[in-house]
Design goal:
The structure holds 2 protein chains of 2 kinds.
Chain A lengths: L13 H15 E2 L4 E6 L19 E6 L5 E3 L2 E3 L1 H12 L18 E6 L3 E6 L2 E6 L5 H27 L3 H7 L1 H10 L4 E3 L8
Parallel strand pairs in A: 3-8, 8-9
Antiparallel strand pairs in A: 3-4, 4-5, 6-7
Helix pairs in contact in A: 2-3, 3-5, 4-5
Chain B lengths: L19 H15 L1 E2 L12 E2 L3 E2 L6 E7 L6 H4 L4 E4 L2 E3 L4 H9 L11 E6 L5 H13 L4 E5 L1 E2 L6
Parallel strand pairs in B: 2-9, 4-7, 7-8
Antiparallel strand pairs in B: 4-5, 5-6
Classes of the chains: A alpha/beta, B alpha/beta.
């Protein structure tokens, strides 16, 4: 049989075609990963809802931001530099050691809870309340949110070290139930009030 | 001897380019997998603020974006410099957010609709007033999971 010669397709331009495709994808796509501060908004309030129970004043740490991006922390002028430290100090559960009178003056109340994985724990009832002005700049708002979140996550890390000897990130990866226990012990208790005009 | 004489003298053989397409294809596939299509053209300027306590959004299909910021330079003559909201490819009013939420939730499979995330990409110079209005509208539209888009890194002592 006469062997029929198969003509080969010239693949020389293949590289050029691939290059074109590559450049097209480079131009039309983005690389950046979406990351940011995740928050959950409170559900809309039904008009018939009764007023929520008052929170005791000693349990609330008030953070106000005015339109000039100045901070008022519990009635005193504060700075974003010390915000994390102050909030950490406030949210650290302080237990007097006496079950009959567990509260310590100058600190928020504590209550005893039973948390799986940790056991009996004196949990702080402290809440950080944050309110801003309509004229507050977005960057200050985010930075304050960031510092508040950082304070809570540092407290959680410290507790995780104390109980499980490692930080929360490792716990979240390896033992989600232990991480849950830590998150139960130190809740992310940041509430946001609706913005008002806080004056100049 | 003549038998061992090299043919063609000292010419170096050309490098074979036969594997070049394969290399380029590899690059191409890498970029196709590692990137996402740019969905909208930004008509507002967004420089997100920095933060440290950030979480990555795992599932991009759940996310819809709301951009807030001053219009880009070429549109400033027409639109001014006041921060505006951008939804999809156009400027929008706060009242349009409800529709936008409903519309974008249709792109999410039904079993996942409750997990819808609204990502707020807001310029750092924006005032909170407009952001608050948007948040209030999102609450009304029952899109409660939000994400403030931020850059990495922030030091309060600076």
């Amino acid at each position: 049989m006469a062997s029929r010669k198969i003509t080969e397709v010239n693949a020389g331009s293949m590289a050029d075609i691939a290059f074109l495709l590559l450049i097209f994808f480079l131009v039309t796509t983005t690389m950046d990963v979406d990351s940011g501060i995740s928050r959950k908004l409170p559900p809309p309030i039904p008009p018939t809802q009764e007023k929520p129970p008052e929170v005791k004043k000693r349990n609330v740490f008030v953070v106000l931001i005015n339109s000039a991006d100045q901070l008022l922390l519990n009635g005193r002028q504060g700075s974003i530099r010390t915000l994390k430290r102050d909030v950490k100090e406030f949210l650290t559960p302080v237990y007097s050691g006496n079950p009959a009178a567990p509260n310590v003056d100058g600190h928020p109340e504590v209550s005893e809870v039973d948390i799986e994985g940790i056991g009996r724990f004196w949990k702080s009832k402290g809440v950080v309340s944050m309110q801003n002005d309509r004229g507050t700049s977005y960057s200050t708002y985010i930075h304050v949110q960031n510092e508040l979140a950082a304070a809570v996550s540092e407290l959680r890390d410290e507790l995780a070290k104390q109980y499980f000897g490692t930080d929360l990130k490792t716990l979240l990866e390896k033992y989600p139930d232990k991480a849950q226990a830590i998150q139960d012990a130190i809740p992310m208790s940041i509430s946001e009030a609706e913005p008002v005009s806080l004056g100049e | 001897m003549a038998k061992f004489k090299k043919e063609g003298g000292k010419e170096t053989p050309g490098i074979s380019t036969a594997s070049l397409p394969d290399i380029i294809f590899m690059l191409l596939f890498f970029f196709m997998v590692a990137t996402v299509m740019r969905e909208v053209t930004l008509i507002v300027k967004v420089t997100p603020p920095g933060a440290t306590e950030i979480q990555k959004i795992e599932d991009k299909s759940l996310v819809s974006y709301i951009y807030i910021g001053p219009p880009v330079k070429r549109l400033q003559a027409k639109m001014g410099v006041e921060p505006r909201i951008q939804l999809n490819d156009a400027f929008a009013e706060v009242s349009q957010i409800k529709d936008y939420v409903a519309q974008s939730s249709l792109n999410i499979p039904e079993y996942n609709r409750k997990k819808q995330i609204m990502s707020l990409k807001v310029d750092e110079t924006t005032k909170m007033g407009i952001v608050t209005d948007v948040k209030e509208e999102l609450r009304k539209a029952n899109a409660l999971k939000i994400n403030y888009s931020t850059k990495k890194g922030y030091d309060p002592n600076k």
